[in-house]
Input
Amino acid sequence: MIRDDILRQRLEKARQKLYALQAKHGFSHASVLRQSVILDNLINQYNRHFYIKEKNQPHKYNRLISTTK
Output
């Protein structure tokens, strides 16, 4: 699985590229739309990665309850 820092770097690079393309070509240019799809896919990957990570860790509230009993 991809490391957190690498995924964040890819997201940031894709976001910066999208901004640059939009500034150069406008919102409806094909290259801007392609880059938007790339960024969307990276965001989805990031969300899946952290959802799985969060799901596999006990919730903070549950840990608090179990330590106070």
Remarks:
- The chain has three helices and no strands.
